[in-house]
Design goal:
Length: 330
Amino acid sequence: MNTFNGILLDKTDAGFSATLSGIEEWRLPAEGDVTVAIEYSTINYKDGLAIANKSPVVRKWPMIAGIDGAGIVEASTDPQWKPGDKVILNGYGVGETHWGCLAQKARLKGDWLVSLPAEFTTSQAMAIGTAGYTSMLAVIALARHGVTPDQGEILVTGASGGVGSVAIALLSARGYNVVAATGRLYETDYLKSLGATAVMDRNELSQPGKPLQRERWAGVVDSVGSHTLANAIAQCKYNATVAACGLAQGMDLSTSVAAFILRGVTLAGIDSVYASKPRRLEAWNHLARELDKAKLDQITTVIKLSEAIARAPDILAGKLRGRFVVDVNA
């Protein structure tokens, strides 16, 4: 009987468990129409929550973790894909309601997949992962709302994490003046090497503040939420845009309408999980053209599948720099 290794999450009367397990192939989800031999996955914040059982991310049990995957099609009944195609999976509830990609195999729906750009290896695609793809959607949103490099500083919160690190690299490549907010000021050299022109302590943003403050930001990429997002909005210039894509500090947002109606600030929500296929392709095409691979290498650490469970609490505690790619076959 064929088996594959994967990070299996389960919750029973005996409690929660997260184990590296050998899993029989016949257990792969019947509703998928493409079987992918996964080469690399990654650990995102949502994966950390699921593996550490810190939030109700998983809604079906048992579950294989992993909201991202990149690999090679083994079998397909979807005419879009054939054996040998290299593909990427981001989101669509995978790792939450459908078995995920922190495993050597995954059975997925063909409509969820995009082709691996020729510019990237499967490892590089997972160094980008949902975090980097979300960053690209946020940068596109700023441009779509008319934020240009000549308008002033762009704030990136959660700068040392995956979303923040890739956002800095992308924004600097487009000529924006990026200020990185982080709780790890010892990472200043790292953040400047990615393209940040200045680094600030996140504590300047993380406490409750006034609904209108001194104008500073022409745009914001925020992966933190809560008071940090509220203060970023309050510090925006006239006609600024804030791309909100995360909740590392919290899901709450205590603010007022003042910045929106007095300064014309736009709050643009970034959904990477169920973004349309055209938007996904747009993001990956931009990433292929714009992301500096040398900077991507700086952001990336590769670990083994057997290390993924131990690393999950670290991403929740903000201890991980950049992106952690998981070699599922190592």
